[in-house]
Amino acid sequence: MKKSLAESAWQTVCWFDIFGQTVNVEEIHRFLFGTKACVKDVEKVLEKDPRIGKSFGFYFPRGRNALVLKRCAHHHRAEKLWREALRHRFIFRFTPFLKLAAVGNTLAMGWPEKNSDIDLLIIAKKGRLFTTRFFLTFFAQIFGMRRSGRKITGRFCLSFFLAENSLDLEKIKIGREDPYLAFWIATLVPIYGRGEEFFAANGWIKKYFPNLKLPAIQKKFRQKTFLERILSGRSGDFLERILKKWQFSRARRKRKNRGGNAVIISEEILKFHETDRRKEFLKKWRERVNSKSATQK
Asked: Which residues pair with 141 in a beta bridge?
């Protein structure tokens, strides 16, 4: 059954609210769940819905006005983290076979916490995933940007790697519905390389967000780095096999006692996030959408 525009707008406001966030009309339009509409029509239904409050141009479930101040604090933290991420982009240029580095999670979404790191999605050339991961980890370490131990704030979290021949993430959905995965993909911000092919491979997210505009594919020539020239042949194949065996061994030891989709280890996907809260977010969202109380916490 087709949803009404008002219900889609309410679902979107509730989606941001489960993360404790307010949202402006442009953001609601961009992430409007399941309905195609123009910004003006979205704004009209927001103004009429008694469940939704508004303050300083931000919308939220009525009674949640205090979240506006929280958003301002997040914006200030995000600016600092973005400066740090962009200042260290040179690390990606050094890394061989790296096709794309994109910022994800709370920084890309706009609500980093006080001690947030900088989560990255890394896409590597086919057949060089483990080589890319090794050198990126090495360079991030020597330049003091690798998250490790208690050294977290403002550092790169290198926990998600994809080979360029395995870009479609629909295969790791938690079930028929996985709005968080779609939202996570939609909010990714490339800071090195081009993301058009990745977004094209994940066009299924437009089923969730039909107003979302995905970039058109544009080919761009990229010169090989010094390390790529050295490691493109048989020597590179040999190193890749050695690094794969070593990294597989270490990753599998770390995966003990971690089930489900929290950790994925394969020749094309390396995902090391220790917790996966997608089911929890989906449950909270449904409860919030269906709640009769707009001030539910």
From this structure: none
Count other C-beta atoms under 10 Å from residue 15's C-beta: 22
CA distance 167 to 100: 11
Q: Rounded to the nearest 5 degrees, what angle is found at the Cα of 284, between the Cα atoms of 283 and 288?
A: 120
Fold of 77-275: Beta Polymerase; domain 2 (3.30.460)
Strand partners, 243: none
Cα-Cα-Cα-Cα torsion 15, 155, 197, 232, nearest 10 degrees, comes to -160
Q: How far apart are CA 113 and CA 78, in angstroms?
A: 9
Side-chain half-sphere exposure of 246, counting CA atoms within 13 A: 11
Kindly give the confidence (pLDDT) of every residue in the chain, 297 residues in length, as a single tens digit, with 9 standing for 90 and above: 457 999 999 999 999 999 999 999 999 999 999 999 999 999 999 999 999 999 999 999 999 988 988 888 888 899 999 999 999 999 999 999 999 999 999 999 999 988 999 999 999 999 999 999 999 999 999 999 999 888 999 999 999 999 999 999 999 999 999 999 999 999 999 999 989 999 999 999 999 999 999 876 665 656 677 889 899 999 999 999 999 999 988 887 766 655 545 788 899 999 988 788 999 999 999 999 998 544 444
- Write down the pTM of the prediction: 0.91
Q: Which residues have CB under 8 Å from 153's CB, separation 6+?
A: 114, 115, 116, 117
Q: How many helices (H) does the chain have, and how many strands (E)?
A: 12, 9
Assess contact for 95 and 135: CB atoms under 8 A.
Answer: yes
Between CA 276 and CA 259 the distance in angstroms is 10
| CB-CB contact of 40 with 72 (8 Å) | no
* Separation of alpha carbons 214 and 153, rounded Å: 31
